[in-house]
Task: inverse folding
């Protein structure tokens, strides 16, 4: 019986995906998109600038041109495409995401079989400690993580369309470097905010908020959402900070937000990727498994979130879909 050639080709495409990712990671590590942008367009020029051998650069560029990352040839010179331009070293680039995913997270995925079989974090297996503990004392990795998160937050500009923040005191719980809070405060000039997160991200958050909206409108506070959150907020936000924690911890965080609310008109906004168990697309399911590799976490269904909010005395009032596979849940305090 003849082999199914199409199926065989699809298998080859699947199992060589890691090679492709590492080829892109190598190019970004060497700064090749930036060097091409600066006018170094041959393998010889790129090799001299990176300290690599010309033959290795030539073979790498042959693959990356075939993949559509770059265009051109040795004869005509290499040129950036829209793909490689998204990897240039500049604000809102995907460069740091590529570096993080190609280094620490790629290492974590190397322990996929053990992580999946034990439902434990591949990162912890690889590095001997949880992701956030590691980031707490590896500042370079923490900085790359924050910048990678920023690059993946393309939906932030659409958040002010999903909720009216006018005149509100907005508390962004786990707000990272303050990008989302700054976006909200820019869209609602009469609103004010408080960013609440772990101590090791405070410096970056304070610097970013000072440069974008001013510290007269945005306070910064450190702590854990599982202990308590700043009180008196009209709107509490939990944006992509829930997936690494278990159900009981989420209920505790939700309860703390409810207790901190100024009054019955206050709301909790959750922005997360969600999963479905039937008819799932590849990327949401892949992000879910990636969470298992990095911090032992998971994405949840809307129904799961609704049940956890109910335990915390909150009712889902409205659900909205945002770009980049993000779902917004607006929850109101019960009674």
Result:
């Amino acid at each position: 019986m003849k082999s199914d050639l199409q199926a065989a080709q699809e298998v080859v495409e699947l199992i060589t995906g890691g090679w492709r990712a590492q080829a892109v990671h190598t190019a970004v590590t060497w700064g090749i998109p930036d060097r091409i942008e600066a006018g170094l367009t041959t393998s010889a020029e790129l090799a001299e600038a990176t300290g690599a051998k010309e033959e290795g650069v030539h073979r790498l560029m042959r693959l990356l041109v075939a993949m559509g990352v770059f265009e051109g040839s040795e004869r005509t010179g290499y040129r950036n495409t829209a793909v490689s331009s998204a990897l240039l070293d500049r604000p809102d680039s995907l460069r740091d995401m590529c570096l993080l995913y190609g280094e620490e997270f790629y290492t974590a995925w190397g322990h996929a079989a053990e992580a999946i079989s034990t439902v434990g974090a591949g990162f912890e297996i690889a590095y001997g400690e949880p992701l956030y503990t590691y980031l707490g004392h590896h500042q370079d990795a923490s900085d790359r993580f924050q910048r990678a998160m920023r690059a993946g937050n393309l939906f932030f500009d659409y958040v002010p369309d999903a909720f009216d923040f006018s005149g509100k005191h907005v508390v962004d719980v786990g707000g990272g470097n303050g990008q989302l809070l700054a976006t909200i405060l820019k869209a609602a000039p009469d609103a004010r905010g408080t960013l609440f997160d772990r101590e090791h991200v405070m410096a970056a958050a304070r610097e970013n908020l000072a440069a974008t909206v001013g510290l007269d409108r945005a306070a910064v506070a450190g702590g854990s959402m599982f202990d308590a959150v700043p009180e008196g907020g009209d709107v509490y936000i939990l944006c992509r900070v829930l997936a690494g924690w278990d159900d009981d911890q989420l209920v505790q965080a939700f309860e703390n937000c409810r207790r901190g609310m100024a009054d019955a008109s206050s709301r909790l906004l959750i922005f997360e990727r969600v999963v479905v168990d039937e008819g799932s697309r590849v990327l949401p399911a892949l992000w879910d498994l990636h969470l298992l590799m990095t911090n032992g976490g998971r994405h949840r269904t809307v129904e799961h979130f609704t049940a956890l909010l109910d335990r915390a005395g909150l009712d889902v009032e409205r659900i909205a879909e945002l770009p980049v596979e993000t779902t917004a849940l607006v929850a109101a305090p019960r009674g």
In short: The radius of gyration is 22 Å. The mean pLDDT is 94.
